[in-house]
Design a protein that fits this description.
Layout: E1 35-41, H1 46-50, E2 61-62, E3 65-66, E4 70-71, E5 78-79, E6 82-83, H2 96-103, H3 111-116, H4 118-121, E7 142-143, H5 150-158, E8 160-162, E9 165-166, H6 173-182, E10 186-188, E11 197-199, E12 209-210, E13 219-220, H7 231-237, E14 242-246, E15 249-250, E16 265-266, H8 281-285, E17 292-294, H9 296-304, E18 310-314, H10 327-342, E19 350-356, E20 382-386, E21 393-395, E22 399-400, H11 402-412
Parallel strand pairs: 1-18, 1-19, 6-7, 8-21, 9-22, 14-17, 14-18
Antiparallel strand pairs: 2-3, 4-5, 8-20, 10-11, 12-13, 15-16, 19-20
């Protein structure tokens, strides 16, 4: 099994402060990136992880104390953000209703009310033992520093931190993961018929889908059928290799986010909250279900020199940082992924985009832009790790995970876009998320004129069946 990293003993490196780009974007430079790796973790707001990071748009302080005070609905009038040193957190509800309550029309003061509003939001997330502790609602106001997050802060100091990265949709994990690969989330009246799809950010009571598209005909309710186009359709048409690596384990949430349930098993062969691509019609029609793989094959592909061009990585719940998963375990998993690339032939040709799928109920002070019907969602951390990343740079552009899709298109598809008006697979969406005028350009985070920088390899606490060369027990 994976062991937590002993990173609390290791001081993060202190590097240069943020600075603006020194030259215009170089269109041709993007093609130095031959591999894009998207690591998607779970359920953290920007303020909860980087709210006190120097130079970032974080938690307002006065005399070293947070200024904001959020209504609690309890004996005390309000609760201020506080330094939470715990390795395990409670988190809060993070469905569509909880997002609306937290944002509160732009006041950004409804996070504790969302925790208390069990009848509206589901209350505490599933399987969080600390939810039974009196006053647990206040924990959504907690934030962490480099004391608890030494690896992530070290990545920020060495590479790029994005302090305007927003979840693409105001909702929970499943629609966010579907947006990540297709820039849309919809409910379809007829399975397989894109013309019957209607945009939906809640994702409950959806069409049935085979539990295992590769093995059985068993069907389970509440899983989406996705006949609209995802990015892999264009990758396939352009003969660009891709893989979506999924770790065996369990899903984090119940269907619909907050209902009580036993967590469902997760694997590469099972369509699930963190494994959306087997639900897409075009993936099946293109014969690319085999590109959804177990995470162990990511390391095998690195070692064999067969790493695909476009990669997504989804952890199981234990390594995801989705409460009650430990921060240290999530960091160990991410550091293991980054270290494997850093030690390989692929370092000089890879861009790693690290983010979190939604805010997890945690406090954030920045009002999300109103970009479309359902988004953007609340702010989440975003990091860019690459030999060409601007060292110590803080990117203040407005971004969402849709920017990953656009970067991949610019790099590998000659600018061809995921667009039902042009890609040959029409669907009813009124617009494509990446076309939003507010969306920034990820090329801003790179300096392709610089020599590739050597990698930073953090203390490697990633051990177990997924680590290259592992010879121990299960």
């Amino acid at each position: 099994m994976l062991k937590c990293i002993a990173a609390f003993l290791c001081a993060p490196l202190v590097l240069s402060a943020a600075s603006p780009p020194s030259q215009p974007l170089a269109d041709e430079g993007i093609h130095k990136i031959q591999h894009v790796v998207v690591i998607m973790q779970e359920n953290r707001s920007f303020d909860s992880y980087f709210g006190t990071y120097p130079g970032a748009d974080g938690i307002a302080m006065s005399g070293g104390a947070p200024v904001a005070c959020i209504p609690s609905g309890d004996d005390e009038p309000c609760v201020r953000p506080y330094h939470d040193t715990s390795d395990e957190n409670t988190g809060g509800p993070h469905g569509a209703r909880a997002a609306d309550l937290g944002i509160d029309g732009g006041k950004m003061d409804g996070f504790i009310r969302a925790m208390r509003g069990a009848t509206q939001t589901g209350g505490c997330p599933t399987d969080i033992p600390t939810c039974s502790v009196k006053g647990h609602e206040r924990t959504v106001m907690g934030y962490h520093t480099d004391r608890e997050l030494p690896d992530y802060w070290a990545y920020a100091r060495n590479y790029v931190l994005q302090d305007r990265m927003f979840a693409p949709v105001r909702s929970w994990s499943l629609p966010s993961h579907v947006y990540m690969v297709s820039e849309w989330a919809a409910r379809c009246q007829k399975p397989g018929d894109a013309a019957t799809c209607v945009a939906d950010r809640q994702y409950t009571h959806l069409d049935e889908l085979p539990r295992d598209l590769l093995a059985t005909n068993e069907r389970i309710p509440g899983r989406p059928s996705s006949p609209w186009t995802d990015l892999t359709y264009l990758l396939h048409a352009h003969r660009v290799s891709w893989a979506y690596y999924v770790m065996d384990g369990f899903e984090p949430d119940c269907d619909g986010d907050q209902q009580s349930c036993d967590l469902k098993p997760q694997s590469a062969r099972t369509p699930s909250i963190w494994n959306p691509l087997p639900s897409f019609t075009d993936v099946k029609e293109d014969g690319e279900l085999g590109n959804v793989k177990d995470t162990s094959l990511f390391f095998a592909d690195i070692e064999s020199g067969t790493l695909p061009s476009v990669i997504w990585l989804a952890p199981s719940n234990r390594y995801s940082e989705h409460p009650p998963a430990l921060l240290s375990t999530g960091q160990a998993y991410v550091a293991g992924i980054v270290n494997a690339i850093a030690r390989s032939r692929y370092w000089d040709s890879t861009a790693i985009f690290l983010s979190w799928d939604d805010w997890g109920g945690f406090y954030d002070h920045v009002r999300p832009p109103d970009v479309n019907t359902f988004g953007y969602g609340l702010r989440v951390p975003g990091l860019v790790i690459s030999a060409y990343a601007r060292k110590g740079y803080i990117d203040h552009q407005i971004l969402s995970h849709d920017a990953y899709v656009k970067f991949i298109e610019d790099d590998f598809l000659n600018g061809d876009r995921l667009d039902p008006k042009t890609d040959g697979r029409p669907d009813p969406r009124a617009s494509v998320a990446e076309a939003a005028a507010q969306l920034g350009d990820l090329r801003e985070d790179f300096d392709f004129t610089q020599p590739p920088s050597p990698p930073m390899v953090l203390p490697d606490g990633f051990e177990g069946p997924y680590k290259p060369g592992y010879t121990g027990g299960p």
